[in-house]
Automatic annotation (TrEMBL):
GO molecular function list: ATP binding; protein serine/threonine kinase activity
Organism whose genome encodes this protein: Streptacidiphilus pinicola
CDD domains for the chain: STKc_PknB_like
Keyword list, A-Z: ATP-binding, Kinase, Nucleotide-binding, Serine/threonine-protein kinase, Signal, Transferase
InterPro entries reported for this sequence: Kinase-like_dom_sf, Leu-bd, Peripla_BP_I, Prot_kinase_dom, Ser/Thr_kinase_AS
Domain Protein kinase: 1-252
Protein name as annotated: Serine/threonine protein kinase
PROSITE patterns: PROTEIN_KINASE_DOM, PROTEIN_KINASE_ST
Family indicated by similarity: Belongs to the leucine-binding protein family.
Length: 685
């Protein structure tokens, strides 16, 4: 609808000024609606709604000024830091329910309640943007065949373009979508083409997996297909049993509080008002402060647009920034809300620490930002997450993704965009013939080779039972095949391999068969939850027990039957001596010890930072292109905390593929050290 500027009132207070596009100003029907709605919006009285301060409905280009809230939008906080904890979601819902109560009491329907229109402040959320609001008593303005709003946060009646049915309950449905997104990091009706998204909104049940049941029950009522079945905002307020914040920030997780504080500090650093300058057709700049104030029309004494602070020019409705000097950023694509979110969040946290340390340097050559994209470990969402980073012109290189399948899906976006990507998690061999990809870790079969070397070095007795799980993908196939190949090469070495079909949950018959065959060592390669099931079946088995990398998960270590199991993985232990400086910095920054994969994320980010710094030098102080970074990254030699990075591009892997040994002791993983790099000398069994 227009451009949003950051401005100042004469008092010095910051304001957001939306200047409506000229073509709307020529539409008398629009002016009539704008006049009525701005008048009604100024009557909205709620601490949870950003206040409308003034408006110029009669100006050549109508404008609307609201109080400015420096906090991040909900969409940004969730994208960067992951879903909010349940209490924060309840506080968010309760405050926004009261905001909608005030909006509806003023005779308005918001019609675009979405994460981008919700700002997070220390003392609670704020609902913004009445850009497409509609007066409750004005049914003639909205066309009955026009879909208005944001797909993914539309009610079924909006999706069906039933304009005559839009009312307060449509806002309640949208709020339900917002709260589901805040709780899970996912859109409740998925992603994809708009027509498919609208169809699922009308016909499908919402995706509320992972939401605590009490909150999920409330959200299901909000997301009822029939508006009559939804609660009123007041009813939603009552159903969300929680205390609203009273000035403190304890309702927000620490990462979001930090983000709010950073934004507030940036606003305090803004310059005083300066005359706005507009580029003319000849390229010369002319002062235009008077012109802007004239544009605002009568009654605009309130407004003083500052050129020094009017550099936002953000298209607020789309969430995209307007023209500005290109920035410097690295992206992190990871599973931040799905089944492998522990590893994904650890990498993101490690990368964020590296970026913050770089920005804290007094001699930093440029300010660096971190952008995150959550693919939830879902290959179907990976391309969308990758596209978001690829479309961000500030992002020059990416760390990601967390899993084999999501990385493969994301490369279909990154490679055509010539956006450099380094992965610390993807260990399958499906990334051949890519131009912009380097693997910062060994392949699964290389890790399995080290597992076999360790097994032999420890004189594990034969026969070695090998359980291949077809449901575990390449990691199981590559791991079991490698161990099966190496063990018989040693004197006395033998294996007893078995396979379970994909989807198998009852491993008891197969395990019983292997034990009846007399296996004396056991190796299973599958996900953590399946490894737990196998461990329980082997609780009274006293021979050596080994698991593959997916079992490097706190849930597996916490399982009593996992005691004594050994896991060989490409992730180093956070208690390793080489990463202790990092671990102390991580503890200071996040208030907790790092988990597995955090040091790898830190190393990968520092590798990319080194390439950006070198690229800047080659560009003689300018910003390198993405493409210009690819060849240097692939040829890079970098000593990290977890390993030395040097890439063998013929083999599509590290030239120095370090792997590490961990053992479950006392309900946690104990780091034992690097796995053997070379085959051990044969020993008597």
């Amino acid at each position: 609808m227009g451009v949003v500027y950051l401005g100042r009132a004469e008092s010095g207070a910051l304001v957001a000024v939306k200047v409506i596009r000229a073509e709307y100003g020529q539409d008398e029907e629009f002016r009539a609606r704008f006049r009525r709605e701005t008048r009604a919006a100024r009557d909205v009285d709620s601490p949870w709604v950003v206040r409308v301060l003034d408006a110029g409905p009669e100006a050549e280009q109508p404008w609307l000024a609201t109080a400015f809230e420096p906090g991040p939008a909900l969409v940004e906080a969730v994208a960067q830091l992951g879903p909010l904890p349940p209490r924060a979601v309840r506080v968010l819902g309760k405050a926004l329910a009261r905001a909608l109560t005030a909006v509806h009491a003023a005779g308005l329907v918001h019609r675009d309640v979405k994460p981008a229109n919700i700002l997070l402040a220390a003392d609670g959320p704020r609902l913004i943007d009445f850009g497409i609001a509609r007066s409750l008593d004005d049914t003639a303005i909205t066309s009955t065949d026009l879909v208005v709003g944001t797909p993914g946060f539309l009610s079924p009646e909006q999706a069906l373009a039933h304009g005559d049915q839009l009312g307060p309950q449509s806002d309640v449905f949208a709020l339900g979508c917002v709260l589901a997104y805040a709780a899970t990091g996912r859109l409740p009706f998925g992603t994809g083409p708009v027509d498919a998204l609208l169809y699922r909104t009308v016909h499908d049940s919402p995706d509320l997996d992972g939401v605590e049941e009490a909150l999920a029950a409330v959200l299901r009522r909000c997301l009822a297909k029939d508006p009559a079945d939804r609660p009123t905002p007041a009813g939603l307020d009552e159903a969300l049993v929680e205390d609203l914040p009273s000035g403190g920030a304890d309702w927000l997780p620490p990462g979001v509080v930090r983000l709010v504080a950073e934004r507030s500090a940036q606003m305090l650093a803004l310059p005083e008002n300066q005359p706005t300058r507009i580029e003319t057709a000849t390229g010369t700049a002319v002062p235009s402060r008077r012109r802007f104030l004239a544009l605002a029309g009568a009654g605009s004494a309130f407004l003083a647009a500052g050129g020094g602070v009017a550099t936002w020019a953000a298209l607020h409705d789309s969430g995209r920034q307007g023209p500005a000097a290109p920035g410097w950023a690295i992206g992190v694509q990871a599973d931040l809300s799905g089944p492998s979110r522990t590893a994904g969040q650890a990498q993101a946290d490690g990368a964020r620490l590296a970026v913050e340390q770089f920005n804290a340097r007094h001699d930093r050559p440029f300010p660096l930002a971190l952008r995150t994209a959550d693919d939830a470990g879902d290959p179907g969402r990976a391309a969308t997450a990758a596209q978001r980073l690829a479309d961000d012109r500030d992002v020059l290189a990416v760390l990601g993704s967390s899993t084999d399948k999501t990385t493969a899906a994301a490369l279909a976006v990154y490679d055509p965009a010539l956006l450099p990507v380094v992965s610390m998690s993807a260990g399958q061999n499906l990334m051949q013939n890519t131009r912009s990809f380097v693997r910062g870790r060994p392949l699964h079969n290389a890790v399995a080779m080290k597992l076999a070397f360790h097994l032999e070095a420890a004189s594990a007795p034969s026969p070695v039972g090998l359980l291949l799980d077809r449901g575990a993908g390449d990691v199981s196939w590559m791991s079991i095949q490698m161990v099966n190949r190496i063990v018989p090469l040693y004197p006395g070495g033998s294996t007893y391999p078995r396979v379970v079909p994909a989807g198998t949950t009852d491993f008891a018959p197969i395990v019983a068969d292997m034990r009846a065959a007399g296996v004396r060592t056991f190796v299973y390669a599958g996900p953590a939850q399946s490894t737990i099931r196998v461990a329980r079946l082997l609780a009274d088995f006293h021979g050596p027990k080994y698991a593959a990398e997916p079992a490097l998960d706190a849930a597996f270590a916490a399982e009593p039957a996992a005691e004594g199991w050994t896991v060989v993985a490409s992730a180093i232990g956070p208690d390793a001596t080489s990463v202790q400086p990092f671990a102390r910095a991580f503890q200071s920054r996040y208030g907790r010890a790092p988990g597995h994969w955090a040091a790898e994320g830190y190393d990968a980010a520092n590798l990319l930072i080194a390439q950006l710094t070198a690229g800047r030098a080659k560009a003689k102080g300018g910003r390198p292109t993405r493409q210009a970074l690819i060849a240097p990254l692939r040829a890079a030699k970098f000593q990290g905390l977890t390993r030395k990075f040097a890439f063998d591009l013929d083999l599509d892997q590290l030239a120095t593929p370090a792997s590490f040994v961990h053992r479950v002791q006392g309900g946690a993983f104990r780091y034992l050290g690097p796995a053997p790099d070379q085959p051990p000398a044969p020993k008597a069994r």
